[in-house]
Amino acid sequence: MRLSRLPLVVGVLLLIFILQESFVNRIDFYLGGFSLYLVFVVAWVINEEPENAMLIGFFAGLIADLSPTLEAPFGLWTFVLTGFCYLLVSTIRGNLEPQISPIQMSLVTSLSATFLLILFVIFGAILGQDVASAIVLIKELTGNLLWSMVLAPIYIPLTQRIHKISLTARER
Amino acid sequence: MANKRSGRTRLLLVSLLVTSLFLVTLDLRGVSLVTSLRNVTQSVLAPFQSLGSSILNPISDFFGGFSNLRNSSSRIEELEKENEELRAKAILNENIAAELKQLKGVLDLAGKGRYKTVSARVISKGGTATISESIVIDQGSQAGITRDMTVISESGLVGVVKSTTATTSVVMLMSDPAFRIGVRVAGTQFMGILSGEGEGRYFVQMLSAAGEIKFEDSLLARGSSGDKPFVPGVPVGRVISVENRVGQLTARARVEPYVKFDSLGVVSVVLKSAGGDPGDALVPQAPRPAPTVTVFVTPSE
Fold first, then answer.
1. What confidence score (pLDDT) does residue B111 get?
2. Of B22, B56, B178, the CB nearest to A27
3. CB-side exposure of B185: number of CA atoms within 13 Å?
4. Which residues of chain B does A86 touch, with a Cβ-Cβ cutoff of 8 Å?
5. What is the ipTM of this complex?
6. DSSP of B13-73, one letter per residue?
7. Which residue in B13, B52, B170 is closest to A26 by CB distance?
8. Contacts A–B by Cβ distance under 8 A
9. Looking at the 3D structure of chain B, how many domains does it have?
10. Spatial separation of the C-alpha atoms in residues A143 and B166, rounded to whole Å
């Protein structure tokens, strides 16, 4: 990734973070919450090279860690997102066809966002964070998966369009 | 060439992971820079959250309404009738009216307990993909709010202030899995520890084997040293069932909180408890049954 692209990517991530914290969090979603930020990050990095994906994951994690309502230690999202984005792009993405169908894309994005939450809870528990009861966790994760899939036709084309704009003519 | 590139990628991955673990270590060791970063973020987010709150308040329950779909149809007729009444009364702003009601309720409670309070509006809740239960209110250190202050609503305890900025504060709700509070059974001196288990489930574990607890008992905050994090006497919840397990040393009961966390609009932060422990003065009164009048008809002769 060209270094000149990084400020733009971080700017977009900050914008989505503000949108999540100020607007999406205010909506009482049925079952559990919906993390626009996580699905956006996943839908973005899936179009990147592994090296770019882990860099974007790192900065996306740093931004997520800034959330004032977060109970977990600062750096936990950075750790989880860096590792996951790299693994996602270098393993799962490598096994898919170059042109992912919209259904595949929705599935990969929604499942990845849910898996990210699971990883976050597991690593949080390892670091001594209090974990919600199993019922609450299952409800939250199911809700997240459901809304990530339902809203995929809105956020995936949007993410891809913004991603395309962020690329240089040569990269396109 | 490819090997060189893959080696560089791995080196970068390891460096980034080590950096993130370094940040975790810094935070766990209590480095203030990390805390201030989150406080700065909160200050930056506050105006956006206020905007979000004013835009989304009227429609925030839209998605939540799906869960009550089954009950909705039976309520449609009732609501249509109510809607006509509301139009007739020309209430222009339901939100303000609701917030005023909550504000009046919370000020009544604070007055009874002789608490010095600061009232605040809830401007945001939850976090980016967090399962913790918290809200953000629009008053901060400028209003005298500091960490570990008790937060109440018209019905009772809401939670405790976790962090503050100049103009906002983050409040950990009673429903958070990490939340614990010492409580006293109203009318007695029996004490216990109340903890949330998520999904609106709360349990109280009595501290002494002699501690008695029964259905419908009210639980009040026991209070902390220097009134932080809890002022004494705030209503916390009522017992809805008592567990009887063989081999259990102390009694354990399920509790329903007095506060409905999904409809919080206005809360108050207790700055000081002026009158000491108010005892049982704040226990919510159970609704009195309406007196029944029986009329015997005697046929006239």
1. 79
2. B56
3. 23
4. 13
5. 0.86
6. HHHHHHHHHHHHHHHHTT-HHHHHHHHHHHHHHHHHHHHHHHHHGGGTTTTGGGGGHHHHH
7. B52
8. 178
9. 1
10. 34
**Under DSSP, is residue B209 helix (H, G, I), strand (E, B) or coil?**
coil
In this prediction, residue B124 carries a pLDDT of 81
Q: Note the pLDDT of residue B17.
A: 93
How many residues are recorded in chain B?
Answer: 301
CA distance B47 to chain A (A): 9
Task: Flag if B128 and A70 touch (Cβ within 8 Å).
Answer: yes
Q: Is residue B23 part of a domain?
A: no
Are residues B56 and A68, on separate chains, in Cβ contact within 8 Å? Answer: no
Does any CB of chain A come closer than 8 Å to the CB of residue B129? yes
Q: Bridge-partner residues for B173, per DSSP?
A: B159
The answer to whether B60 faces chain A, any CB pair under 8 Å, is: yes
- Integer angstrom CA distances of residue A159 from A40, B107, B160, B244: 6, 47, 38, 55
| Predicted pLDDT of residue B244 | 72
Of A37-41, A144-148, B30-34, B105-109, minimum mean pLDDT range: B30-34
Q: How confident is the model at residue A1 (pLDDT cuts 50, 70, 90)?
A: low
Q: Is residue B247 very low, low, confident or very high in pLDDT (cuts 50, 70, 90)?
A: confident
Cross-chain Cβ contact B132/A61 below 8 Å: no
Closest residue to B63, CB basis, from A29, A74, A136: A29
Residue B186, domain member (yes or no): yes
Q: Is A22 on the interface with B (CB under 8 A)?
A: yes
Q: What is the pLDDT of residue B92?
A: 55
B25 lies in some domain: no
Q: Is B296 within a domain?
A: no
Which chain B residues in 277-296 lie under 8 Å from chain A, judged by CB atoms?
Answer: none
Residue of A nearest to B122 (CA): A26
The fold of the A3-166 domain, in CATH, is Arp2/3 complex 21 kDa subunit ARPC3 (1.10.1760)
Where are chain A's structural domains?
Answer: 3-166
d(CA B83, CA B152) in angstroms, rounded, equals: 31
Residue B271 has pLDDT above 70, yes or no: yes
Residue ranges making up the domain that contains B269: 30-280
pTM for this model (two decimals): 0.66
